[in-house]
TrEMBL record:
Pseudouridylate synthase that catalyzes pseudouridylation of tRNAs and mRNAs. Acts on positions 27/28 in the anticodon stem and also positions 34 and 36 in the anticodon of an intron containing tRNA. Also catalyzes pseudouridylation of mRNAs: mediates pseudouridylation of mRNAs with the consensus sequence 5'-UGUAG-3'. Acts as a regulator of pre-mRNA splicing by mediating pseudouridylation of pre-mRNAs at locations associated with alternatively spliced regions. Pseudouridylation of pre-mRNAs near splice sites directly regulates mRNA splicing and mRNA 3'-end processing. Substrate binds at Y213. Keywords: Isomerase, mRNA processing, Nucleus, tRNA processing. It is found in: Nucleus. Its main location: nucleus. One of its GO terms (cellular component) is nucleolus. It comes from Anolis carolinensis. Residues 57-76, 420-433 have a biased composition (Basic and acidic residues). InterPro entries: PsdUridine_synth_cat_dom_sf, PsdUridine_synth_TruA, PsdUridine_synth_TruA_a/b_dom, PsdUridine_synth_TruA_C, PUS1/PUS2-like, TruA/RsuA/RluB/E/F_N. Gene3D superfamilies: Pseudouridine synthase I, catalytic domain, C-terminal subdomain, Pseudouridine synthase I, catalytic domain, N-terminal subdomain. It catalyses: a uridine in tRNA = a pseudouridine in tRNA; a uridine in mRNA = a pseudouridine in mRNA; uridine(38/39/40) in tRNA = pseudouridine(38/39/40) in tRNA. This is Pseudouridylate synthase 1 homolog.
């Protein structure tokens, strides 16, 4: 028995020791698990912090990038808006084909037509195109290439020649108060007096079927060569005025005007021109000198034609040539026809009868007639054109000096074409010429 109990006690002690070792093992394992879990939590937490920090950084970067992109977008939009501001603003207004009624005093200008790239000789169109750009009617690049706005003048007046009724056709943005804005950028001796809508294919040169010009001159030009009064003291009487009008009426109809221009022979079909009317109005006095205005309406005119028509009538009235020379000049022989000075020549009006008949009453377009602008046209001539002609005549005596050359012409014989063409070329022509090159054919 005692041995049995001793055996049990030893077995119990051994079991307790074994259980103790197992407990310590589990305890140590548990502690290891706790330690590992803590490490995992720490690592996971650090990684989470790093991920969170990285994520926040990326979000901030993305926000910053988005802000920069948005800022760039706004900048691009602002740039585009500023770049297209004029065009976008103009697009609020329709772009349409129109005609402008233009009046100008040609003194100091080298004609109507613009010479792009040549700033040495200033023309009426130089000032006109600049005013169109500055007023916002056309883009700036249209000024360098006038075809982009379909620009066309009706008549090409030359150096020093004025106009009271020039017509130009072009495409513009129909901005508000367009006439006032254009005129605000023009000198006072160039005015836009009227505007009308026209068809899209309208061309002021091609659609024009007649032109009216006036020629203002001192009446002493009609004094007979044997008259004692060859200056401002002369006054035109009714008898002489009747003679002048009878001779001018002789031009009416179709004639061969090859003697009234240069470089055209009698066989050239384009030398034949149709004159509708030509007459001289009653004389009037300005600044102590008597003047008269002659008017001629025709389908078209050649270079120097009007000035030679007037020059020949003056030569006949003054007694230098016989009346028969007028009919002779329409024949095939070359006749010495004198050319009157360019001062005093004015483009009065251009006519569009055929266009008006077809489109004037169609309900969409206006007839190209300017009855409502007559008062403004007359006022412009009285303020700018007539005073310039009168003052220049009194200062430079262009008509008086030209009259002295009539005795050099031989109206009783013919001359070779070369001789007469050379004489035309050598004539002092500083006042300017008819300049109807646009209308010659």
């Amino acid at each position: 028995m005692p041995l049995f109990r001793l055996g049990l006690r030893l077995a119990a002690d051994s079991l307790r020791r074994s259980l103790g070792r197992v407990g310590n093992y589990h305890k140590e394992a548990h502690m290891k698990h706790l330690s590992m879990a803590e490490e995992v939590r720490t690592v996971t937490g650090n990684q989470a912090k790093r991920l969170k920090s990285s994520s926040c950084g990326r979000e901030e970067d993305e926000k910053e990038d988005d802000g920069k992109q948005e800022e760039k977008g706004h900048a691009l939009k602002r740039f585009k808006a500023s770049e297209d501001e004029a065009e976008d603003g103009a697009k609020r207004f329709p772009k349409r084909k129109i005609v402008l009624l233009v009046a100008y005093s040609g003194k100091g200008y080298h004609g109507m037509q613009r010479n792009v790239g040549n700033s040495q000789f200033k023309t009426i169109e130089d000032d006109l195109v600049l005013a169109l750009i500055q007023s916002g009617c056309i883009p700036e690049n249209h000024g360098e290439d006038m075809k982009k706005m379909s620009f066309q003048r009706c008549a090409r007046t030359d150096k020093g020649v004025s106009a009271a009724g020039q017509i130009v056709s072009l495409k513009v943005w129909l901005i508000e108060d367009i006439l006032q804005k254009i005129n605000n950028h023009l000198p006072p001796h160039i005015r836009i007096l009227g505007l009308k809508r026209v068809t899209g294919g309208f061309n002021s040169k091609n659609k024009c079927d007649a032109r009216t010009y006036s020629y203002m001159l001192p009446t002493f030009a009609f004094a007979h060569k044997d008259c004692d009064f060859q200056d401002h003291t002369f006054h035109l009487n009714t008898e002489t005025l009747a003679t002048v009008n009878r001779l001018l009426a002789g031009y009416k109809g179709t004639h061969n005007f090859h003697n009234f221009t240069s470089q055209k022979g009698p066989k050239d079909p384009s030398a034949k021109r149709y004159i509708m009317e030509m007459y001289c109005e009653e004389p009037f006095v300005r600044q102590g000198m008597e003047f008269a205005v002659m008017k001629v309406k025709g389908q078209s005119f050649m270079m120097h034609q009007i000035r030679k028509m007037i020059g020949l009538v003056i030569a006949i009235v003054k007694g230098y040539a016989s009346e028969s020379i007028m009919e002779q000049s329409w024949g095939e022989e070359k006749v010495d026809v004198p050319k009157a000075p360019g001062l005093g020549l004015v483009l009065e009006r251009v006519h569009f009868e055929k266009y008006n008949k077809r489109f004037g009453n169609d309900g969409f377009h206006e007839a190209l007639e300017w009855a409502e602008e007559e008062e403004k046209i007359s006022a412009f001539k009285e303020k700018y054109i007539y005073p310039t002609i009168i003052s220049t005549e009194k200062e430079e005596r262009s008509m008086a000096n030209w009259l002295e050359t009539l005795s050099y012409h031989d109206f009783n014989s013919t001359a070779s074409r070369t001789q007469l063409d050379n004489r035309d070329t050598q004539t002092n022509d500083h006042e300017g010429s008819d300049g109807f090159g646009d209308d010659s054919d």
